[in-house]
Design brief:
Shape: elongated
Number of helices: 3
Structural class: alpha+beta
Order of helices and strands: HEEEEEHEEHEE
Strand order of the largest sheet: 1-2-5-8-7-6
Length: about 200
């Protein structure tokens, strides 16, 4: 549930930015960018830019960080650092004609390149800690250069025929720990000099 909430917040942010960009490129009715699992019928009138979250993995480079320490009136609170995730998205256009689909993908790539880092006031949705607003998250979007074979595996996994698509990864999505440990502050210490043998 926690991972789903974090992933949905980031996906909403991505879909909102793409939706705004598509509206300025095409005449009415403008294509819409929506979160989608690519199941069922997908609208081509208006055209749809489907944003599919297809993989969530832990960012291995942030493992084994030291405990976070917060000082409170009751003592010191120790907690694990947030678990950091890499979210991988596939962006797929559905327009009914190839030229429009290619223009939609081009606009999506341009938009994500221009807005590759989201932080602070750029974040929208629900307030922290359940959402992104007011959080310290910094989201960096990069093109995920999957080979044709890797991309085909994703299409095979969702049991759909291959379509023109692009893949991106967003890092770092933070999942805050729920367990913390309270310890008392050190109030005195004794130092015994070493006695030579």
């Amino acid at each position: 549930e926690v991972v789903q909430r974090v992933a949905t917040g980031h996906a909403d942010e991505l879909a909102h930015v793409l939706d705004t960009a598509l509206g300025s490129l095409f005449p009415a009715p403008a294509p819409q960018a929506v979160l989608h699992d690519l199941q069922g019928v997908i609208s081509t009138n208006p055209a749809t830019l489907a944003v599919l979250l297809y993989e969530v993995t832990e960012d291995a480079s942030t493992r084994n960080r030291p405990l976070q320490r917060d000082i409170t009136l009751g003592g010191r609170v120790l907690r694990k650092p947030p678990m950091t995730l890499i979210l991988r998205y596939m962006i797929v256009p559905f327009a009914g004609d190839r030229l429009t689909e290619q223009r939609m993908l081009g606009r999506a790539m341009q938009t994500i390149y221009d807005n590759s880092i989201f932080s602070g006031p750029d974040l929208r949705g629900t307030p922290a800690p359940g959402g992104l607003v007011g959080s310290s998250d910094i989201l960096a979007s990069t093109l995920d250069p999957l080979s044709l074979e890797e991309r085909t595996r994703v299409w095979h996994a969702i049991q759909k025929p291959y379509r023109l698509s692009i893949c991106y990864q967003i890092r770092v999505a933070n999942v805050d720990p729920t367990i913390s440990r309270q310890t008392e502050l050190v109030r005195s210490r004794n130092i015994d000099p070493a006695v030579p043998v």
